Amino acid sequence: MNMRKKAEEDIKTRTILEQILEQRYQTNLNIPQKGSAIVLLVSGGMDSILLWGMLMKKYGLHVYPLYIAPIKENARSKAQKASIQHYASLYRKQYPQTYHKVYFQTHTWLFSFSQVIKKKMRLLNASFLYENVSYNSFYDKYALGLVSNPSRWYIYSSYALEYSLLLRYHYGIDIHTFVLGIMGDDGIYDKESNLAALRSVNLSLCLTSGYVQWSVLAPIDRKRNFYCEKKDMLRYSKELNLDASWTRSCDSNIQNHCGMCLSCLSRKEAFHKAEIVDNTDYSHPWYRRFIQAALSRVKHKQVLISKIIRKVKGVSQTNITPQFSPKDTISIQPVVTWHQKGKSVYVFNPNTKYFEELNSTASTIWLFVEKNSPRLEDIVGFLKNRFDQNESTIRSDTKEFICSFVRDGYLQLQKE
Ligand SMILES: [Zn+2]
């Protein structure tokens, strides 16, 4: 299945919206001239923090950063704030002319998919998930690509517009531009991280506020020569003379980085591609193993537990191999959501937010487990009749498969 296709931009819509903005309203969709002032959304993540430095150093812009914080502080927002404060103090010294302090604005989201996931609500049925998983080709991994707050671009852009009006009418600072730290490769994972979506937000705000000069920009615009991918941004940290490891990218509500969410995966991918040492503290114990596996992923693929068993390699949550007795019965973990489409079975673990597409053999095993809650030998006997394979190979491959799926929280073992 082609997960990437969904994220492709609607060029036609974008072109029409750009024509309306540029030709009818003379909105400037280019990065403004040196010395101009802009509002930048900062999240504490690698992209927005480094973009902040780039806008000051490379473009000579006065940057007024805006951070949208939850009213009730949590581990994630604390870590984001710590990142912002860390880099703000460096930028204040490095760029005293164009540095401006961060404006912290609190906001309450009425709805968030992260809450739904946490509560394991039935909204997460497999076909819904199937429509919302993204594929990371670098790690050969499917993960849930839902945007936690679907209205976020509007909310952020509305706050930015109001903040620019505050700066204009209270302090006489002329601002027409809002910059978001979306990178060129974000569109692979997020359906809304593209220019068509940004232009529509831009036009809506122009029309509803009457400020037709207002522009919403992001470095995803090749045509106007304002384009950056995560790895380019990270490489720019060398120009800025910064260590980007103190930025905070993770989607999880923990102090450190979880190392397994989509944001953590693309963070690690960026460090790897930029050939910069990643000093990020990924708190999970299996992190090092994961990184090593990813770095030697070609080799990793060659030592697949079995070519016939899993199409997508999962990342184990722990190094511990489950204690497996031949008498144990194997069944599906109750939290796991799954569905069958054609010959393939798709499984989703709401705890790790990982989605796996099983190949035909693994799908066959999955369906057998679902129906029979079998012991290992029952599966071996069943497979032996179907595949022309040596019995001991089938046994060891199946055992490996079951163990890894137990480790990843898809299956459970029950003692007699
Ligand atoms: Zn994470």
Outline the structure in words.
This protein folds into 2 domains: 231 residues, Rossmann fold, CATH 3.40.50; 111 residues, Outer Surface Protein A, domain 3 (Alpha-Beta Complex). Helices cover 41% and strands 15% of the residues. The strands form 4 sheets. The protein has a 5-stranded parallel beta sheet with strand order 3-2-1-6-7. It has a 5-stranded antiparallel beta sheet with strand order 4-5-13-12-11. Helix 3 links the parallel strand 2 and strand 3. It is elongated, with a radius of gyration of 24 Å. The N terminus is likely disordered. The protein binds zinc ion. The site of zinc ion (ZN) has 8 residues, from helix 9.
Provide key terms for this protein.
Rossmann fold; five-stranded antiparallel sheet; 416 residues; binds zinc ion; disordered N terminus; alpha/beta; Outer Surface Protein A, domain 3; 14 strands
Structural class: alpha/beta
- Globular, elongated, flat, extended or rod-shaped: what is the shape? elongated
CATH topology of the largest domain: Rossmann fold
Arrangement of strands in the largest sheet:
3-2-1-6-7
In helices, the fraction of residues equals 40-55%
Largest beta sheet, briefly?
5 strands, parallel
- Please indicate the count of domains: 2
The first-level CATH class of the largest domain is given as: Alpha Beta
